[in-house]
Hints:
The complex is a heterodimer of chains A (141) and B (560). Chain A has helices at residues 18-27, 49-57, 78-96, 113-130, 135-138; strands at 9-14, 36-41, 62-67, 103-107. By secondary structure, chain A is an alpha/beta fold. In chain A, strands 2-1-3-4 form a four-stranded parallel beta sheet, sandwiched between helices. In chain B, the strands form eight sheets. Chain B has a five-stranded parallel beta sheet with strand order 7-6-5-11-22, covered by helices on one side. A five-stranded parallel beta sheet of chain B has the order 13-20-14-15-16. A four-stranded parallel beta sheet of chain B has the order 2-1-3-4, with helices on both faces. The mean pLDDT of chain B is 93. In chain B, 31% of the residues lie in helices and 25% in strands.
Amino acid sequence: MDKDFTPTIIGFLCNWCSYTGADLAGTARMHIPPSIRIIRVMCSGRIDPLFVLRTYLKGADGVMMMGCHPGDCHYQKGNYSTRRRYVMLDTILKTLGLDEKRIGLWWVSASEAPRYEKVTNEFTESIKKMGPNPVFKEIFI
Amino acid sequence: MNGNIGVYVCECGPNIGEKIDIDKVLEAIASLPHVKVAKRFGLLCSNDGKKYLEDEMRKEELTHVVIAACSPRDHEQTFMTVAERAGLNPYLVQLVNIREQCAWMIPDKEAATEKAIKYIRAGISRVSLHQALTKKELEVCTDVLVIGGGISGIETALSLAGEDRKVFIVEKSEELGGKANKLSRLLPHQGSTLSLIQEKIDTLNKNAHIEVFTGSQVVDARGFLGNFEVVIQKGENAGEQEIKVGAVVVATGFDLFNPEENPAYGLGKVDNVVTSLQLEEMIKTEKVLLKNGKPPRSLALIHCVGRSEKGYCSKTCCLNILKNAHFLKDKIKDVDVTEIYRDLCLPNKADQDYYEEVEKKGVKFLRSNEIVNIKAEGGQISVEYKIDGKSKKISVDMAVLSPAMIPSADSKKIAEMLNLPLDPTGFIKEAHGMLEPIATPIEGVFAAGCSLGPKNIPESIIQAQATAGNIISSLIPGKKIKPEVKVSVVREEFCTGCQTCLSVCFYGAISFDPHKGVSVVNEAICRGCGSCVGSCPSGAIRSKHFTYTQLYREVLEALR
């Protein structure tokens, strides 16, 4: 394991819950690893599975999807679509022989800054253990 | 692209200025293509800052602006307004969050600066793809449809008509007044006579702005805030009528839990076991009598019937039972009245006094955890209940069950018609339980009274008046509404007509055009969540301001 390895992780966060939760983590001066870079979308339902795949194939070491808890979606049911897409993505990655653990889905509400801190740190740690995304070495597109 | 991008980094006092090396940031981005200016300023959201930005936008002839400051949740609107004043389309401004997401969460200045540069680069890359979006204006209809002619519906209509709004009330039964008609009287501290409600109905009938459809039902309602098309089925054979309204109020009220669902209550099997509504009827006709025609010498008034079955407190029954106990004590000489309750719900300021008054009359209160059985025994009724694990029982001449309030039988049908969500109890779910307690997630559709959950009359009236106020301030005659512009659009040439988007759109904003074989988005209904975009297998739907390329460019810069 490369000790100096700083992973690059892309987070797709919904505007209403998770992004607000991430903002709150900032306001509370929590320590979030600089490896996380956020792409804000209005609803986690907007996250096209192709985005996640392309982000991964372009070399992101990990991709995090975050949305409102089930039943709390600002748009009522958007996060249910996200959940189904996540299951689909998981299957696609497994089928292609890619590491499905590099992609994950979490529910983080607007008040759950500690949860945001916890999941981002844990995910960063697990990606650090896995090492850099081998996609450039393994896949020829 | 052709254009001049201006990048402005806000120091936000010491918040960003001390945590991020802004000079290093400016140096890194000044040479990027199309970036005409890259500058820093003390506090951009201050009046000086806004003036400065406005002047800069004009002076530098900027076509796109990136502002690196706080969260878009704080000041996106502020800077969009500044752009509008400077003559720049507000959607050509991108606010990059380097305060919450960089300065405040990364203690290491170097790492924070590096991350801020990446975010700003992503913002620059994204903004160059932004398109000017213009808000369209739509005419609105200010008439209102009220579904349900109970207390809530009546009060909503009266409040709206007071402002000269035209109101249509659709009531399924033959008369207005709802469940209040079935009560013998109101609580003493709420005004003891039902004539108060009758007065409201009389005022309503005289009001020329209110049109009442009794014995009628709403069979179809579609549209959006300011423009709903509604079909009313009038009576059995009176045909249908189409009306146009701007808002819909669901005031469908409640029904009562049927105690026959649980055989332990004995209703329908044991003589002289009645429901509270049957008792109200007896009190109304002043004939509180047993089956054998004699007045009862003892009664058990049973609270919380259906509470464990339904899983919530109906919060109005306790006072109603107190009211009936009070009446029975006054009217029947030497009668023995016992109330069996699980919890006493006396939340309002006058309730405690009333409870003490009733207790002084000699009404007995017994606490129970569960009603085990109600059965006939020795010419009387035995009520067996459990308290702290022990079984106890009392014998009475008559048992009165007070059932829980449940959603009205039609509310599910109406919710489906209007796309409204129901909560696990089956009542209509509010847009936000605390902040928007009378709005539904569908803009232009409101709910009031017991359609949202158990409530007493004053609370229903509060909600009805609030709903009317909300409608009066959101639908103003002559004033046009500007719907959301960050909506989805279908590119017809790519659409295969699979209709997946129809199934994911919660708001019913997408319809299928059978002639062209493509999906069509109604921009006035679309809320811009983008779920349809994420689901479209052929990439035919585009989400304005969150397009595939805009987001993808952002990702690429973030990965750099």
